[in-house]
Amino acid sequence: MSDQRARADKGRFATPSDKPAGNFVGSRFTSRRQFSFAVASLILFSDVQAHDFHVSICDIKFNPHSGNTEIVHSYPMHDIDSAFWLMYGRRMDTALAVDEALLHAYFDKTFVIETAIKSRLKIRWVGVNSDADTLTVYQELPGIRLGPALTLQNTVLMEHFPTQTNNVNVRMDRAAGTTIANGTTTITPTTTTLTFDRKNTVQRLS
Questions:
Q1: How many whole angstroms from its chain centre is CA 173?
Q2: What is the tens place of the pLDDT at every residue in 84-130?
Q3: How far is CA 80 from the centre of its chain?
Q4: Which candidate, 26, 32, 38, 155, has a CA 20 to 30 Å from the CA of 66?
């Protein structure tokens, strides 16, 4: 009788050596892979929270030699890695065609230029490169020169970082006046800086 009770007690109060190996009893992590993923996420996003200053720069200007408007985005590589991890569960590798395709699709949704009648301009993807600190994205508008009345939408990374700020510098060539002597028009390049955040995701060129 005492032996039966001892065996019953042992079944109710198992010692650590009696528990199945490789399983965290009472935890939601049921595999080493899930646990590793959770630890990596914790480390990555504790670093992200350590700096709450998320800023990007975009330069847009017309290239008279190609006849295209060039668009160059610069983002901290750490922020891109963090966002990529949130969306796809891993860091980005710019050497992989599939990762560039994912980034391309993401920018198509979050960086948009429209005309006054809400017609969306087709932005061509040129490519991407990166180093340890910065990710640079290259786009262009073939055969288009930017002008007033165009609307820009820039929400890149804003769904991941509440304080994300995207600064866009738009250089436009404006006619400043006419020189009567030779009939030519003086073109003055001007740069307009638009600042996008969660409260200002859409802005119009003027």
A1: 29
A2: 999 999 999 999 999 999 999 999 999 999 998 889 999 999 999 99
A3: 5
A4: 155
